[in-house]
């Protein structure tokens, strides 16, 4: 479990850095937002991993408490995951490198994740609502990954390709 969370932290941090490099020249504010919120999410998951690692070496009551804290960290971390999708969607809209609909789905998904964290705080048993709020984010995430892997990004209006910035 701890190894899984550490791999999530590593992939989240590297992805945040990669999206910063992708969007930094065309939309530096959104690029910084994606990076900052993505790294904040990675830190929350890192703390969760530390809780789980500590839980393995303690008494049963403490172990239960640490597992509950870890679970709640993931719920709270949804705020940062939502907040990283909103500037990502904004960057998609402002750069024109990807379909505008993708940008709007990412923004809606980001708002959904923020709402999930709030819903879980006030109504922890409202899992059906939380699951529905996650749908736009899931669609946007898979669409973004698929689009980048299959299509890539359009060339800039000035004729330069954002792919060239990734090499520098």
TrEMBL record:
It comes from the Bacteria. Pfam families: DUF4386 (PF14329). InterPro entries: DUF4386. Keywords: Membrane, Transferase, Transmembrane, Transmembrane helix. The keyword Transferase applies. GO terms for molecular function: transferase activity. The chain crosses the membrane at residues 6-23, 30-53, 73-94, 101-123, 129-153. This is Glucan phosphoethanolaminetransferase (Alkaline phosphatase superfamily). It comes from Actinoplanes campanulatus.
